Amino acid sequence: MKIEKQLTKNPSFKKLWLAHALSQLSGYTLIFLVVGKTFEVTTSNIASGMLWISFTIPTLFLSPFVGSLIDLWNKQKILVLTNFLQWLVIYGFAISFSIDKPYLAYPLLFLYAAIGTINDPAEMAKIPGVVEKSHLPVANNLLFFTDHASLIFSSVLAGVLLKIVSLPIAISIIASMPLVASFVASTLPEEKNPDQTAISLSTELEKLIDKIRAGYQFLSQNRLILYSFSLMIAFKVLLATTIILLPDFSKNILRASVYDAGFMVVLPLAIGLISGTIILGKYQGKTRKWRWIGRGLLMLGVNFLLLIFLNPANLVSRRFFNVLLAVLAGVSVSIINAPVQSFIQEVTPKDLRGQTFSTLAFFTTLASIPSVFISTALSEILGIKAFLTIIAIAILSLGFYVSQRGNEIVLSTNNRH
After folding, report:
1. How many domains are contained in the chain?
2. Please, are residues 144 and 123 in contact by the beta-carbon 8 Å criterion?
């Protein structure tokens, strides 16, 4: 608690924190607005999926190299410039929708994501320059919490804005956030001696290939890590797919407005995630991790089926039922995700953890592109109900498998958890 108070009294950290919060909130709100509008205009999940691919491709191809470039530049100036450029791009969205050119969202989202691949690591690299070394873990946790809070709040903010103003005006309002963030970043202290050691792109590519090879070798030699990685990647892909399919899900499953999904799904889901964390903390050590994972998968699969086939006809009952299931889904995801992450952290040797998690991030991004495209195509062909039924059956099957074979998998790696 003392460290948190010291950080909140640190003017440079507060400025960086504010700039980060504004950047994250504007970005998430933009995605909810654009995905919702794209589905509203096209009624096509494939069109929405292509938005995600436009957003993901820059991260996949640029993130391995931008770290070295950031080390060559003044990070404070990077933050000023990137936030300013994001303001211009977001304002471009407002113009494109006001002149009825929604297809411009694809190149604009690509540009926005490309700028973000520079802005985000620059923020992380700037933290040690404004925070004492002993305060770094708490500072990073505060930013991590801010990311998740921004995601939750943005889903609600998107719906509220569109109930009050038109889409172009709503986007113009959120465009002001990175502009303010750019101004705030301009007041941050500059580095006195930035690192000027140049690293070639070919060297970075070689390092990336070595990192992927090392991660792959470790994965292939450890069955428990392989299973854990597969679950983590599946969850990340499921999250991306959920965001893309949220408009169709709201319209045809929840029978609600596209922009009410924040109130009915995302916010209750967040409450469930918090509740699941509390449950895990209370019963920590009393139940083995693989049992939590199996139970969570079974709960999540049943949750999907109930939502698809047992939605009450009465409006008030339906809203209450949907919110309750969203909370339970959050609990399910929480009691799956935390034990899986713990498995990876505990089983992975200390000197391989960085490589392992960077490999996880790379493969997650790599897997999300074809997965989102296939998911949106299937939901378009089969319909959202049939597609979600298949997903529910797959989750239930995996839950039964983990419940029956989880202990065997853990014991096979000589790790008893």
Report:
1. 2
2. no
